[in-house]
Amino acid sequence: MEREAAKERIEALRQVLDTYRRQYYLDNQSEVTDAEYDQLVHELEGLEKEFPEFRSISSPTETVGGGLSPEFKTVRFLKPVLSLGNLHSKEEFFEYARRVEGWLNKPGPLPWTMELKIDGLSVVLDYQEGRLLRAATRGDGLVGEDVTANVREIQAVPTRLNAPISGQFRGEVYLPRSRFAAINGDRAERGLPLFANPRNAAAGSLRQLDPAITRERGLAAFVYEIRELTQGPDIERQSHALQALAEWGFSVEPHWRLCQTDEDVQAFIDTFLGERPPLDFDIDGLVVKLDRLDWQRELGATQKSPRWAMAYKFPPEEALTRVQDIVISV
Ligand code: NAD
Per CATH, which fold does 74-313 belong to? Predict the structure, then answer.
């Protein structure tokens, strides 16, 4: 592509992606599917790579998507709440794993934990001596929305843990499929607009000014990360963190596995790409995380995502033929 044409396309893509982000994160709506959105991001990444003079730190490829509704108090994070980079095939995973081995200068294969990527919305939870103090959405990754009153209405998020733990944890709030079907059935009977998917329904149900509405929607949540532990045992592996989180009373998605070899990783991916075990929640992929937390710290993160973890996104179920039209029509 010519330089001028590339510049125009980059600008058009950034504009359309910003619009989709606002709709998705602030209005809990999507005009395009996630696969269509991801395809546009992929195109923008390609152009920014080819024409690095047009790169920008505020591009959707470099920033954590999200936003802040003026209706909520804000919470500033001491450590950014990041997104994840994407992998789309086993080959891409193996290339990534070899890169990580090179960065760390360690012979592979390294141990990876593999988890399900729950399609909900990210929350950050603060506990003091085992009591839930505060809950926030991811917001723009630096500042989130205070949704403590609403999260207290989610039964799966303990207001008291089984141990006097203090720290910050990260998880995903989601709407079980069975609840989604029931809520939409009820809305249809009452002539109300239906929710497009469980993810948007979950986001709309959590980001409510009236916590009673959150309660009646029947949200659930899984916790998958210790961001900080100011009081509690020393934990040096993600697999140990998942076990400890469950022992303390958090709801932890149980299908995760510690994979020690490339074959283990391959088998885990195959299980979830093929005939999946039945789940009462949507997943949009898997997450691979370096198991050792000291190595995670050594690798650190970019402005947008950690270098020690990746989302393994499932192939889109629908064709992406609309993508070109979408940008052109903006
Ligand atoms: P992401 O959803 O691709 O990955 C990061 C998120 O995964 C984390 O924030 C976390 O909330 C979640 N997650 C779920 N399970 C996890 C686990 N076990 N471990 C770690 N993280 C886990 O990235 P994102 O920045 O949150 O969102 C971008 C995605 O959102 C896009 O790729 C697209 O699919 C979707 N999106 C869609 C639209 C649209 O208009 N359709 C607009 C914006 C974004």
Answer: D-amino Acid Aminotransferase; Chain A, domain 1 (3.30.470)
